TrEMBL record:
Residues 361-597 form the ABC transporter domain. Residues 40-327 form the ABC transmembrane type-1 domain. This is ATP-binding cassette domain-containing protein. The keyword Nucleotide-binding applies. It comes from Deinococcus psychrotolerans. The keyword Transmembrane helix applies. It is a multi-pass membrane protein. The chain crosses the membrane at residues 34-63, 84-105, 155-178, 184-206, 264-285, 305-325. PROSITE patterns: ABC_TM1F (PS50929), ABC_TRANSPORTER_1 (PS00211), ABC_TRANSPORTER_2 (PS50893). Keywords: ATP-binding, Membrane, Nucleotide-binding, Transmembrane, Transmembrane helix. One of its GO terms (biological process) is oligopeptide export from mitochondrion. It is found in: Cell membrane. Its main location: membrane. Pfam families: ABC_membrane (PF00664), ABC_tran (PF00005).
Length: 614
């Protein structure tokens, strides 16, 4: 069985950074705005944990009080017993109150921090260049925003509360154990180093297994995302079984990794249980002998047992938290890897504003390569001066560099040689947001978002009024079909606009560009995938959109660019010809060859009637 090649690499393992505990400390930056809530939670935790240390002492007193009798009367004295029970109930109520309070406060801080972290990662991703996303799978990035952030949330919220509570209880419990019975304390505490050592050794293995699980789940999610987003291609090639097997393999790999982690956590749980109950049995044996010889009272033995149980439970709890921290360590490191990824589009220290842009574009000895220095350049020594309002058509064979050239205008990539200027300002020195506001793009593959028609048009300018949206739709020849939709402008278009036809999606995209009102317009084969009727409507809308704007047109049908002010012919990343349609036909060369080849192909498609001139 074959499998689809993996064109996009997984997120890199950066080695030591993946294991750097300091990354967890970086979360404190996100906690800082909520330090007030956290302080209240910590205070509640201290009260709850401190009062829980009163239980063993009161229970011991309760046991001893149960055997007291009034002196010389032989009648049981229930007064102390009653008072102790009432005191216990009061302590229980206060502990319950503060336990609920600390759980709410610290969990609230945790989910708020995680929400901020998720927003920060997503916001940072939006600032990275297309080159970054070309080497990463979308499904893997979304996995970082979901599973990895959720793993961190466990530590930031519940684990933090447990850690504070257990540390306080552990320290207090050990102190009170020693004060209750020094000999029993030595006997009990001898097993603690063994418990801690086991937790550290197995915990490191759990951490490694947890990181592997995260990797496998992210890979499976990436596979599913690709298959779902391209479901039409999958179904058209009847490749459902291929995708099922590919995703199934990913799921099985994540299952195998999860199983390894489960085995380790189960092993730790079993060892800890044995050590805890074994030490308890030893305490009961030794403490019972102490009671028999009168060294301690039964009540003190019960108090000591409760303290020992508290210490054991908290040591076990700390090992569980240690395991959670190990899992979160890998997840937080991966998140910070994304946050630490720098954009390949450096921001100028003093960006130049672009006010009242007229659309004068200059390419001066521009070169560009996608890869490393060793790769051949996609563009080489390119010079082009485009006047404001001029329409420039870019033609040439596939791979000539046409789309690469126009992608430099909104600064999706930076030139690797030469200079690109807009109104005399080097785009690398210009304010990036201001630059992109002045560049409109209508691509061949239109992407609409899964909202309503109106929301997709408003993407061009969110502050626009309803009247402006409708005006843009009319100018794009889109309002007629929009009003025929079930809910008009409020009709949902589905994911990627799947509920609309290709021509309808393209007209919505044109309306979006009209509403944006850019001074520089890029039309990247905007009509190539349309039928004749849709192409005529879209072409008419595009001609309205181009008026008064500097326009770059990439067209597969040369007949649609005859009226362009300038036709630039590209081949192998260089400009080989330039001129008007008539001038280029007269010159001969590549443009005439392309035109003649396309003309003959169109004549063949029209059949014998066209040959006869009918």
């Amino acid at each position: 069985m074959f499998s689809r090649p993996n064109a996009r690499a997984a997120l890199p393992d950066t080695g030591p950074n993946r294991r750097d505990p300091a990354n967890l400390l970086r979360l404190l930056h996100y906690v800082k705005p909520y330090v007030g809530w956290l302080s209240l939670g910590i205070f509640s935790t201290l009260i709850s944990a401190g009062l829980s240390l009163v239980f063993p002492k009161l229970f011991g007193n309760l046991i001893d009080a149960s055997f007291l009798k009034r002196a010389g009367s032989g009648v049981a004295d229930t007064g102390p017993l009653d008072r102790i029970v009432l005191l216990l109930l009061g302590v229980f109520a206060v502990v319950a109150l503060f336990t609920a309070l600390q759980s709410f406060l610290i969990s609230r801080v945790g989910v708020r921090v995680v929400a901020d972290l998720r927003r920060a990662v997503f916001s940072h991703l939006l600032t990275l260049s297309p080159r970054f996303f070309a080497t990463r799978r979308t499904g893997e990035l979304t996995s970082r925003l979901t599973s990895d952030v959720s793993t961190v949330q466990t530590v930031v919220s519940s684990a933090l509360a447990q850690l504070l509570s257990q540390v306080v209880t552990l320290i207090g419990g050990v102190t009170l154990m020693v004060l209750t019975s020094f000999q029993l304390s030595l006997f009990t505490l001898a097993v603690i180093p063994l418990i801690i050592g086991t937790a550290v050794v197995i915990g490191l293995q759990i951490r490694k297994a947890a990181r592997e699980v995260q990797d496998k789940v992210a890979a499976a999610n990436a596979s599913a995302e690709e298959a779902i987003s391209g479901v039409r291609v999958v179904q058209s090639f009847t490749a459902e079984d291929v995708e099922r097997e590919r995703y199934g393999d990913g799921v099985e790999q994540s299952f195998a990794a999860s199983l390894r982690r489960i085995k380790l956590t189960s092993l730790m749980a079993g060892i800890m249980t044995f050590l805890a109950f074994g030490s308890l049995a030893g305490v009961l044996w030794y403490g019972g002998r102490q009671v028999l010889v009168g060294a301690i009272t039964p009540g003190k033995l019960v108090s000591f047992l409760f303290y020992a149980l508290q210490v054991g439970i908290n040591v076990g709890g700390l090992t569980g938290i240690f395991s959670q921290v190990q899992e979160a360590l890998g997840a937080s490191s991966r998140l910070f890897e994304l946050l630490d990824t720098k954009s390949e589009l450096p921001v100028s220290a003093a960006p130049q504003p672009l006010n009242r842009v007229v659309g004068h574009v200059q390419f001066e000895e521009v070169s560009f390569r996608y890869g490393d220095e060793g790769e051949l350049p996609t563009l080489s020594g390119l010079n082009l001066d485009v006047s404001p309002g001029q329409t420039v058509a870019l033609v040439g064979p596939s791979g000539a560099g046409k789309s690469t050239l126009v992608s430099l205008l909104p600064r999706f990539y930076d030139v690797t040689g030469g200079t690109l200027k807009v109104d005399g300002v080097d785009v690398r020195q210009a304010d990036l947001e201001a630059l992109r506001r002045q560049v409109g793009l209508v691509p061949q593959e239109t992407l609409l978002f899964s909202g309503s028609v109106a929301e997709n048009i408003l993407y061009g300018r969110p502050s626009a009024s309803q009247a402006e949206v409708q005006s843009a739709a009319r100018a794009a020849n889109a309002e007629e079909f929009i009003l025929r939709l079930p809910q008009g402008y409020a009709t949902a278009v589905g994911e990627r606009g799947v509920k609309l036809s290709g021509g309808q999606r393209q007209r919505v995209a044109i309306a979006r560009a009209i509403l944006k009102n850019p001074r520089i317009l890029i039309l990247d084969e905007a009509t190539s995938a349309l039928d004749n009727e849709s192409e005529a409507l879209v072409q008419d809308a595009l001609e309205k959109l181009m008026v008064g704007r500097t326009t770059f047109v990439i067209a597969h049908r040369l007949s649609t660019i005859r009226s362009a002010d300038l036709i630039v012919v590209m081949d192998a990343g260089c400009i080989v010809q330039r001129g008007t349609h008539a001038e280029l036909l007269q010159q001969g060369g590549l443009y005439k060859d392309l035109y003649d080849l396309q003309f003959r192909a169109e004549r063949r498609e029209q059949g014998p009637l066209a040959v006869q001139g009918i």
